[in-house]
UniProtKB/TrEMBL annotation:
Keyword Signal part of the UniProt annotation: yes
Localization annotation: Cell envelope
Entry GO MF terms: carbohydrate binding
Recorded GO CC terms: outer membrane-bounded periplasmic space
Signal peptide: 1-34
The Periplasmic binding protein domain, residue ranges: 55-297
Protein name as catalogued: Substrate-binding domain-containing protein
Main location: other
Keywords recorded for this protein, A-Z: Signal
Family to which this protein belongs: Belongs to the bacterial solute-binding protein 2 family.
Organism: Actinomadura physcomitrii
Length: 336
């Protein structure tokens, strides 16, 4: 370029300089397109951003269950990414959960995420969602009923396989006689966990049914069982808050029972590190919320269905004292 300018007269330099400025501006414009090209390219591929979608999640959770806080964090992260309005409601009673799903149908949402802890209670309302052409995705529980009830996909762990993993771990830590504490009677997922554990556990495992919405009652039931049967040397709970209560019962009674559980939260990680809890079976609830919202967005904008008609597994992952520290940071921020 130096040689070209050297041969250009003073009178002719201005047009050349203007061309150089225009070329530079063109390069800047290309750079700007490149920096935002991913989003614009995706919008072009899916026919534009389109109207904002509204997605409702209706679960069977009870108040105070930290597991569902993690599910919601995952769902909200995906909703923020996909520009989705996210609505959440819950009730542990199957009939009331179905009523909440009907409310979502009446609101003409663009997609519904449900749990199928009590699939019979959800059958009719999900048929109405299908009739209204509202796509449904299930998470967490009811994988075996998901497709039959019209869901596009299911995100969660196979509860029987997860239970088998727990039973194997109980045997590894030397437990001979254990309780499987079921905090919601009739929940098919919880029942499957205990049944799976019985398959692989070499000792005795009996179910103890407690009222999950009443933690003092949960503690009282576990404490009474430990006091009446001194041979119990293991307790398997099916949710992180119940593990902490079981630890309190063990300490109060002077029992030597080892406590293990399903699911994680930040307090549970600390208990695993301290040895109060032996292990946890993690189903990665953040993934369940995230992938469910993302699946409905993908289906609405590009016709995609994940899993090919089979459940998409998010667990189980076994967390012990050996690997708990590596997950602690994620647990503290509320995503594991």
């Amino acid at each position: 370029m130096k040689g070209v300018f050297a041969r250009t007269s003073a009178k002719g330099r201005a047009p050349v300089r203007r061309l150089a400025v225009l070329a530079a501006a063109g390069l800047l414009a290309l750079g700007a397109c490149s920096s935002s090209g991913g989003k614009k390219g995706e919008e072009k591929a899916t026919g534009g951003a389109g109207p904002r979608l509204k997605i409702a999640m209706v679960t069977h959770s009870a108040p105070g269950d930290t597991f569902w806080d993690i599910v919601q964090k995952g769902a909200k992260a995906a909703a923020a990414k996909d520009n989705v309005q996210f609505l959440y409601s819950a009730d542990p009673d199957g009939g009331k959960q179905a009523q909440l799903v009907q409310t979502a149908i009446d609101q003409k949402v663009d997609g519904i995420i449900v749990t199928l802890a009590k699939p019979d209670a959800m059958k009719d309302v999900l048929a109405r969602a299908t009739a209204a052409k509202i796509p449904v995705v299930s998470i967490n529980s009811g994988a075996e009923d998901s497709a039959k009830l019209g869901a596009l996909a299911h995100f969660g762990q196979d509860e029987s396989i997860a239970g088998e993993a727990a039973g194997t771990e109980l045997a590894k830590i030397g437990v001979k006689k254990a309780l499987c504490v079921v905090h919601e009677q009739g929940n098919v997922g919880l029942e499957s966990r205990c049944a799976g554990a019985k398959k692989t556990f070499s000792g005795q495992l009996q179910n103890l049914y407690v009222q999950g919405s009443d933690m003092p009652q949960v503690k009282s039931s576990i404490t009474a069982k430990l006091q009446s049967d001194k041979d119990i040397d293991g307790i398997l709970t099916l949710g992180a808050p119940f593990a902490a209560t079981a630890v309190d019962s063990v300490k109060e009674t002077g029992s030597k029972a080892k406590v293990a559980t399903f699911d994680l939260n930040k307090d549970l990680i600390a208990s695993i590190k301290s040895g109060d809890i032996q292990f946890a079976v993690d189903q990665q609830p953040y993934l369940q919320g995230y992938e469910a919202v993302d699946e409905l967005w993908l289906y609405r904008t590009n016709g995609n269905v994940l899993g090919g008609g089979r459940p998409v597994l998010t667990g189980p992952a076994i967390v012990t004292k050996d690997n708990a520290a590596s997950l602690e940071g994620f647990a503290v921020r509320g995503t594991r």
